[in-house]
Amino acid sequence: xxxxxxxxxxxxxxxxxxxxxxxxxxxxxxxxxxxxxxxxxxxxxxxxxxxxxxxxxxxxxxxxxxxxxxxxxxxxxxxxxxxxxxxxxxxxxxxxxxxxxxxxxxxxxxxxxxxxxxxxxxxxxxxxxxxxxxxxxxxxxxxxxxxxxxxxxxxxxxxxxxxxxxxxxxxxxxxxxxxxxxxxxxxxxxxxxxxxxxxxxxxxxxxxxxxxxxxxxxxxxxxxxxxxxxxxxxxxxxxxxxxxxxxxxxxxxxxxxxxxxxxxxxxxxxxxxxxxxxxxxxxxxxxxxxxxxxxxxxxxxxxxxxxxxxxxxxxxxxxxxxxxxxxxxxxxxxxxxxxxxxxxxxxxxxxxxxxxxxxxxxxxxxxxxxxxxxxxxxxxxxxxxxxxxxxxxxxxxxxxxxxxxxxxxxxxxxxxxxxxxxxxxxxxxxxxxxxxxxxxxxxxxxxxxxxxxxxxxxxxxxxxxxxxxxxxxxxxxxxxxxxxxxxxxxxxxxxxxxxxxxxxxxxxxxxxxxxxxxxxxxxxxxxxxxxxxxxxxxxxxxxxxxxxxxxxxxxxxxxxxxxxxxxxxxxxxxxxxxxxxxxxxxxxxxxxxxxxxxxxxxxxxxxxxxxxxxxxxxxxxxxxxxxxxxxxxxxxxxxxxxxxxxxxxxxxxxxxxxxxxxxxxxxxxxxxxx
Amino acid sequence: xxxxxxxxxxxxxxxxxxxxxxxxxxxxxxxxxxxxxxxxxxxxxxxxxxxxxxxxxxxxxxxxxxxxxxxxxxxxxxxxxxxxxxxxxxxxxxxxxxxxxxxxxxxxxxxxxxxxxxxxxxxxxxxxxxxxxxxxxxxxxxxxxxxxxxxxxxxxxxxxxxxxxxxxxxxxxxxxxxxxxxxxxxxxxxxxxxxxxxxxxxxxxxxxxxxxxxxxxxxxxxxxxxxxxxxxxxxxxxxxxxxxxxxxxxxxxxxxxxxxxxxxxxxxxxxxxxxxxxxxxxxxxxxxxxxxxxxxxxxxxxxxxxxxxxxxxxxxxx
Lengths: 674, 318
Hints:
The complex is a heterodimer of chains A (674) and B (318).
Chain A: E1 4-16, E2 22-34, E3 38-42, H1 49-55, E4 65-73, E5 76-77, H2 83-89, E6 94-97, H3 101-104, H4 111-122, H5 127-140, H6 146-149, H7 159-172, E7 177-181, H8 189-206, E8 209-214, H9 217-223, E9 226-231, E10 234-240, H10 241-246, H11 251-258, H12 297-301, E11 307-309, E12 314-316, H13 321-330, E13 345-354, H14 361-366, E14 376-384, E15 388-392, H15 399-407, E16 414-419, E17 423-424, H16 434-439, E18 440-443, H17 447-450, H18 457-469, H19 473-486, H20 503-516, E19 521-525, H21 533-550, E20 553-558, H22 561-567, E21 570-575, E22 578-584, H23 585-588, H24 595-603, H25 642-646, E23 651-653, E24 659-661, H26 666-673
Helix pairs in contact in A: 4-5, 4-7, 5-7, 7-8, 8-24, 18-19, 18-20, 19-20, 20-21
Chain B: H1 2-29, H2 34-39, H3 45-55, H4 61-73, H5 87-122, H6 127-141, H7 144-158, H8 174-208, H9 211-218, H10 223-236, H11 239-251, H12 255-260, H13 266-275, H14 279-307, H15 309-317
Helix pairs in contact in B: 1-14, 5-6, 5-8, 5-11, 6-8, 7-8, 8-10, 8-11, 9-10, 11-14, 13-14
């Protein structure tokens, strides 16, 4: 009996370039999905993983076409079926859970309707039976009060809830194969951990086969039995999850795993140089040759075949895989940061509150303060010269809001921000003088949006140099070349436009632009979240080197606790715009910690199938901070009762130097958490 | 939601007030006054004095504005200079004629535009799209006085099927008017349909490329069901405002077309009263056209609010 539910044979997908050349996105993919197993497809952006997943449903995006091979679902080639035949398979036999459920749910249709539509199409239930089934499905994905939920429109749900609806919709047709395309990317850490938990349970309960596409090895490790690693349109490694993640025998997978920051390690992760070749730009040899540390001459001219090693049930595309393990064991470098903080205050946030509420015309006229419960409240942080302080929290925690107000983009409602011990920074950008503006620079999350697409790199970098230092002519040019050298890019990049750069290169230009002003403080707003892991590691490394060289202070905002642990000296944990905990990073990551920090750390996914996340709190989304009491009262797993609801918790100081804002006695916390 | 509607309504009233002020001041700061410009060379002696007396020009401007505005609110625009008759009587049949022309163009043009827009989007870059889009671009770019003249030449003069220009009394009955409006309606509908069809096309294409349409396909939703349930409601929402502007443009008088066909609508009245220097009528027309624009846009906003679940629930549930 055939145990494979899907067999992909020699599949190639490509597009025609403007010059009429045929360019491949997927090259000769051959693999099988077995009944009842969960397979992870992992790779960085551009590796072709999503194209492969869509092809498994017989769906090829507009502009692409198959250049060979077949995609067999139960021995039926999906790529040869017409639309009518595919409609019978899609949703009923194979269902998709999309990446961004917020955008994948039709905005004008109610949740209940969208699920019912799937039921109507793929089952012959009566109306009453369908309604009952909708409730069942919503219950199954653990959405509260299904009857109310069904009447909601997609935009009325939080990101996690939307994702659950998408899961319910996919389950409606009772499919035999579920395809998940980055189903948790873009969700908060705790929500992500909960959704993954749900998917895992579903796979166990229903016996459905799953294909889980993700760039996140942490998520893959949690749910998958088998992993396929893709690199520039090819499978480079395929095998059982433990084997792949613990003893990777392909240099790319090895490098990828090394470049992920982990909670269990301190210091920066190793970065992998270079970037994935563009489709159509692949040389005659191994596609990973340029970035490989373990290559031999053979790799340059000959393409390695995917070789199946039966003793470990693994397929690998590398000439030198057998030597890799012994070679990698020699390579042990530790990038331990020196984390000595010298108390020399450069920035002082005192009792800062920030409110987004706009006063109505009448209230303005009466000079009435309307917002008694501002978005950000009571923030007290001292930042020392040359340190990296990280602000961590989920979406809505106010971390970016604080950053904007330091930059002068948002006015503070109460409190003040003092620069260099004496100078009060005005909340109004126009009132700050040129030197204040120069001293504080900002790097944004997405370089695609923060770099002007119509300016060359030279124009981008010359702006701050002209503005703050009045450089012109040769002096300007040599300064730009020097900046590019600092971010490890050649001078020839000057004439390029942002669209001609890769994601990592763009972010380097953004870093160079911030450093062009020779600032004292650089505010980093999720600077690595839009980047692939291997690129992220390189940017983190660059930031660290520049800091050591120039003594710059970083305020680093991130939702990723592992990244924060790698780069920061001190960490401030925020929930709903209120500080929960602050201290040296090595102490914040150790117990005792604030219950919220504990929840966050517990939800971090490590790329190791043997380390499971600890889910201690519900992933409810709170729209507003509570008016009185502790900000975390709504979700706290260790809540004491009325005290937490009515009284603002006091600061308590641990023996390690971290401060926790909690009603529970710090010694008590230590006992509870150990 | 109620508050939002109320706000829009008040804003519309404020707009009208400002328009009335501007037209009043505009007329006021013109050299001379209504009487001197109307009477021209006879503007002296008794005739001038009588005219000034009749229009009340001897009263200070602000008082005149207040009494004029007071009358306008009650629906009385005063007397025209040329016809010596109540402006209401002048306007009534003109508004009716413009309404007839506009409704005919709307009834034909809007459904046609929607259908053509949807066809071109669904068969994007294929034959139906290429043909329809080419024709649409032609009829958009040819100025209406040329297309209207060509229509008259071909249909009225060569083929002699329909009257070339409208020679009817202003207060003609609806059925007498009907054969006369066919050519003007075609001339207007050509431009209007082309513009709207292009708009609908790009809107549908944009929605077709969205994640939720890909999701609907992957869910196994049959093609036409997907088009009607998932694509169109979302694609046509932004079209509402464009349709509203088009209707306002039609009602406000399609000046060029009306002049070419000698059609007795509001648009021609504008031209006539300006060339006759009939300033009270010009003032009245200013207010009326502004009210048409404001009220139609107000209706479009209401419709969008009602049809867009995002706006609807955002306002009620919070």
